[in-house]
Amino acid sequence: MNDFTVKFAKSRDNNKAKESSKFAPEFKMDGLIPAIVLDVKTNKLLMMAWMDTRALSLTILTSNAHYYSRSRKKIWLKGESSGHIQLVKEIRLDCDQDTVLLLVEQVGSGACHLGYLSCFYRKVVRADSGLALEVVENRNTTRV
Predict the structure, then answer these.
(1) What is the predicted pLDDT for the residue at 144?
(2) Where do the annotations place Zn(2+) binding (predicted)?
């Protein structure tokens, strides 16, 4: 990976950030910012991941989604091993600039490492024994 980074503006005034046109993502104390990922064509929620400044920089510079793995403590290119890459078409920040929204073209069978289009392939349902999870999406992108 290249050692290029994007310089982000610093903005600690949350009220100014809400109306500002200055790109100043607010990374938390652990140096991470949550990234919500939607399919650009369908607006389907694909996944949530974490980014550090380098992952966000690489995403901006390459238009390929990069994330930070908290368990492995390193940056990963989405689809690097599976081929299921995410081509970033648009990047947005929420009003507080503390959450990233990526609109992507999902290449391959899906965003989930288990083979589903979305990592959110189950819903919570009431069951006789309490709460349970029900699969609402088949593997390889088909809705149940």
Answers:
(1) 43
(2) 95, 112, 119
Does residue 91 sit within a domain?
A: yes
> What's the pLDDT tens digit per position in 50-74?
999 999 999 999 999 999 999 999 9
Summarize pLDDT for 91-115 with one digit per residue, the tens.
999 999 999 999 999 999 899 989 9
Grade residue 31 by pLDDT with cuts at 50, 70 and 90.
very high
Residue 104 in any domain: the answer is yes
CA distance 62 to 112: 21
Q: How many separate domains does the chain show?
A: 1
30 is in an annotated binding site: no
Q: Which of 57, 77, 55, 61 lies closest to 5 in space, CA to CA?
A: 57
| Residue 112 counted as an annotated binding residue | yes
Is 3 assigned a ligand-binding role in the annotation?
no
Torsion region of 3: left, alpha or beta (phi above 0 gives left; psi -120 to 50 gives alpha)? alpha
The closest of 2, 12, 56 to 34, measured between CA atoms, is 56
